[in-house]
Amino acid sequence: MRVRASSGRLPKRVAWVAALVLVLACVFTMALAGCNGPSHSAEGPGSGNEAAYALVKPGKLTVVSDLANPPFDYYDSANVPAGFEVELMQAVAQKMGLECEYLPAQKFDSIIPMIKQGGRADVGASNFTITDERLKEIDFTDAYIDSNQGIVTSSDIADTVASDYGSVLNVPGVSVAVQSGTTGESWAQENLPAASIKSLDDPVTALTGVQSGQFTAAIADLPVMQYEVKNSFSSLKVALQVPTGEQYGIVVSKDNPNLTAAVNEALEACTSDGTIDALEAKWFGNADASQITATAAMAGAAVDSSGTGSVAVSKATARPNESGGSGVIGGEGTRLTWEGTVHVDSGISSVTLTLPDKASFDGSSTRITVLEGLKRQGVEGSASANGNTLTVSFAKPVANGSLLRLEVTNMSFPDAGGSYVVTGSYTTGEGQTASLMDSSPIAVIANTPLQRVVNWLDGQAWVSAWNSVPFLNMFFKPQLLVTSFASLFPGWLLCLFIVVLAYPLAIVLGLAFSLMKISQHRLLRAIASVYINVLRGTPLFLQIYIAFFGLPMLGVNIDNTMLAIAVVAINSSSYQAEIYRAGIQSIPQGQYEAASSLGMTRLMTMVWIILPQTVRRVIPTVTSDFITSYKDTSLFSSVGVMELMMYSKNLTTTTGNITPYIAAAVFYLIVTLPLIKVVNIVERRLSNAEQGLGARPKVDGAPLPEETSTKGDESLTTHGGVGDADAD
């Protein structure tokens, strides 16, 4: 009786159980870390009766930023954080009696989740516009600066964009670059629905794409665009200023309200002693916004002295609220943005907006923005909702020539969908009433099955209990998982499309360069060596940037998806060339000699003898390379290709939640886990075949006796019963 020697491996079932326990332990540890991050108390400002606030490091105000938005925040030539916000945070920390410490730069979409989970940074400062959506996840301090958006184009079309941006930008096939999760992205989605909106990591990448010809325009914070166009992108022009009247605030965790109060007090002190004015003069003093054309809404402003005058309605748009899509769904909360320019000599004291029956303003909140010229005016007011009617009254009349913007959050259109026009009336400063102009129609679609699932989850007690755990709410929020799977599905299909089309090309190129690498011709070997070494020796990220931004500058314009396929194919071919070369050279030299003795040429030997064995041997390695290439498609999100990671990044930036990235991971695993299993099976069968442990052939329909020898067993067994060694 033979006894199989122990291999030192755990049984497969035990190994799986051990792995599962390890994963659960890691998750539990991270959950504890998320719930109990490091915290140090500090005395609050002002009187000693005020509560303490928590700090990550005692005596330090730890700040996180993307440091990619000059002149607000960026790395200077000495690789030190610099800019308006950096100096402001240093002043704030000083007034709090703390030292300001900046963390290494983070991606913009990761800052809010980092602050929300706590433990690494106290505050986030990176041009964050105060929005209702973000306020659901974190707190904001009081606003420290007002800003607008700037549209940058090439100088050739700047004047046309300034006169009528819609005719140039709101056109199918036109690509407009924005920074993911910003006001610029939101404005573009609402006002340029026909254009292709490309969400990127930072404004510099967007401007690089405009300069290279990849994008028609870029939209981002006006001061950033002015600074970059003046200092780095002189061939471009800020064609248009979009008067969004947004306000920037500092991001603080909801679990640290006393820190919010302390920073607010420090900001107030910076305002009172002129620190903020001095910083604005230093960093923005040379920017001349008066030379930049405003949107049509502002250009049409004019004094009117004829009694009731008029209010020129420039737009009424609704923010997309479709889960997994870009439409506006009826019956679901959304944000209505209404704009009008006042042409009333006495100004207007109130505005009433009216929608068709079954629309609702009940439970909504209204944000009032008044701009005179391009400067924000402090106008207070109150809103009163009654079904499909909303009346906004102002503490003082909105002056003649001003742009009035009303952003109504959590209102809803009728369930059935349709095309809806905003109507209404206004009251002048003298008490006269007149009708508003009708707005352009807003397209609304009927409620979707996916949205009904989300609504059902919203009402479940177990979902509320689940989301009450910070770790689970941040990474595995059920409602967001459902919508993420739907939203990310098109990006997943594009990932598969890219890699499935690229890989056959990579195989052909890789095989060709592997044969060149082992060729007897020196020139062919040199070409193959340079090709393989350069591609393997440089990051794929750099190759993507050269292809997407460099080729258009050379006059080579290729569709982004086709270009992504080409980049993946070329990059992968360099790795496959080495895989095939190693496979070919692993074939024993004796097989070449045997083929030669049979009269076969070198080409015949390679095609009929060597390559079939090589392909069989490299299948596991090639499959592993396919998995790597599939995951590497995520890098294309940096240049605006709407693949899986781009969709998840946009959702994460908008929601301030990591759950979309978990959904993206599931999509990756759907492909990678089965392929990993296939690789393991193929490797095991190849190993068994080489060791003679595979299935035995049949003789006259009956199987031969099973081979009983094991690896390392040198005794021989015959079909008759006694081995040759025993016969002696």
- Average pLDDT across residues? 83
Query: What is the helix tally?
Result: 24
Question: What is the alpha-carbon Rg in Å?
Answer: 32 Å
Predict the CATH topology of the largest domain: MetI-like fold
Strand order of the largest sheet: 7-3-8-15-9
Secondary structure category:
alpha+beta
User: Per CATH, which architecture of the largest domain?
Assistant: Orthogonal Bundle
Please report the first level of CATH classification, the CATH class of the largest domain. Answer: Mainly Alpha
Alpha-carbon distance between the termini? 20 Å
- How would you name the CATH homologous superfamily of the largest domain? MetI-like
Tell me about the largest β-sheet.
Answer: 5 strands, mixed
The coarse silhouette is elongated
- Identify low-pLDDT runs: 1-10, 28-38, 45-50, 296-305, 707-728
Helix content: 40-55%
The total number of structural domains is 4
In terms of DSSP E residues, the strand content is: 15-25%
Got a strand count? 29
Key terms:
24 helices; D-Maltodextrin-Binding Protein, domain 2; 728 residues; disordered N terminus; disordered C terminus; 45% helix
Give a short overview.
The protein is 45% helix and 20% strand. By secondary structure, the chain is α+β, with helices and mostly antiparallel strands.
Polypeptide structure, described:
This protein has four domains: 40-140, D-Maltodextrin-Binding Protein, domain 2, CATH 3.40.190.10; 145-248, Periplasmic binding protein-like II (D-Maltodextrin-Binding Protein, domain 2); 301-447, Sandwich (Immunoglobulin-like); 479-690, MetI-like (MetI-like fold, Orthogonal Bundle). It is 45% helix and 20% strand. The strands form eight sheets. A five-stranded mixed sheet has the order 7-3-8-15-9, with helices on both faces. A five-stranded mixed sheet has the order 12-11-13-10-14, with helices on both faces. The longest helix has 40 residues, at 478-517. It is elongated and about 110 Å long. The model is unreliable at 1-10, 28-38, 45-50, 296-305 and 707-728 (pLDDT under 50).
